[in-house]
Amino acid sequence: MKNFILFISKKLFLLSILITSCSEDSICKSIANKDVNKPSTIYSGKSATLIAGGVYTYTIKTSEKNVINEPPKIILIEELPPLKTSYSNAGRLKMHEEGYSIGKKTELTELLKQLKNKNNDIIEIIWVWDCSPQYSDMPMKIIYNKTIGNLKEVYTERNVIEDYKNINPECLEQFLKNGEKSLYSLESYCKDASHDFNNREMKQTTIGAKPDQNELDGSVQIVIAFVKSNAKDPSSIEFLEWSKVSSLANNWIVRCKYKGTNSFGTIVTENLWFYIQNNKVIDTKSIS
After folding, report:
1. What's the N-to-C CA distance of the chain in angstroms?
2. Could you tell me if 269 and 258 are in contact, meaning their C-beta atoms sit under 8 angstroms apart?
3. What are phi and psi of 102, to 5 degrees?
4. 22, 70, 121, 248: which has the fewest Cβ within 10 Å?
């Protein structure tokens, strides 16, 4: 009798250990429903082994076969909301000889108006520049992408593009509110702004390469040589101001202000636009 009680006590002790050690493990629940005659059963990487009295022990074991399939991985694809574009037509605008629109309503006043619209991401404005009587009309376009700060002025007939980067809406708005007329001034308002004239094909085949401009004083050697070759006293010529070299129709243009002695020995000041093709000054125009 004593031995029987001792045997029952051991059985209960082992059973209590098993229940305590795996009460929260799914394998324990599975074991109860399995064939007790099988000495070993694999449950997703765990091994349950029959011992005396129908009690199971289990150990973690690597299984070659994956009994429970892992759920498929979710692949996320980056998506962005579609950008909203507003379109405007500024009509026919008279172009000043310095390369900007004349009048109270211009492409830039329209740009300011559209910039205040919070429901657009991209602004596109078209217009036609009246360049008469010297040149034919120039169809133009401005495209401004608020989200990336990119502004482009495009001469659409030849796809000539002035490209401005890092132009955020705040500095652009300040530029427009101050009544600036030339986009070249953007670099004075937008700290990290950069500018690129990116129609290389047009530069090389139609009007030649862009004239070199001295980074220190803005001078253009082609113009200096032209002025001195036509001066009465070349040694008296003093160059005072230079604009940035830019493109207009089929020419490179640059403004230069200088002074020198004329035929009567008097010092006079001239302020001229110089029109350049293929590294030669082909025309000048005085600014009154």
Report:
1. 131
2. yes
3. -105, 140
4. 70
DSSP annotation of 136: -
Distance, in Å, from the CA atom of 201 to the CA atom of 167, rounded to the nearest integer, reads 26
Q: Is the pTM of this model over 0.90?
A: no
> Rounded to 10 degrees, what is the CA torsion of 94, 98, 100, 103?
-50
Using only C-alpha atoms, the chain has a radius of gyration, in whole angstroms, of 41
- Spatial distance between the Cα atoms of 243 and 255, rounded to a whole number of angstroms: 5
- Eight-class DSSP state of 52: G
Q: What is the pLDDT of residues 223-259, one digit of tens each?
A: 999 999 999 999 999 999 999 888 876 788 999 999 9
Q: Assess contact for 48 and 57: CB atoms under 8 A.
A: yes
Q: Tell me: the pLDDT tens digits for 196-218?
A: 876 544 445 567 888 999 988 99
Separation CA 145–CA 164 (nearest Å): 11
Q: Give the whole-angstrom CA distance, residue 70 versus residue 90.
A: 61
Can you name the residues that pair with 286 across neighbouring β-strands?
272
Give which of 232, 257, 229 is closest to 242, Cα–Cα: 257
Return the half-sphere exposure (C-beta side, CA atoms, 13 A cut-off) of residue 122: 13
If you write DSSP's letter for every residue of 153-222 in order, what string do you get? EEETTTTEEEEEES--HHHHHHHHHTT---GGGHHHHSTT-EEEE--HHHHHHTS-SPPP--TTT---HH
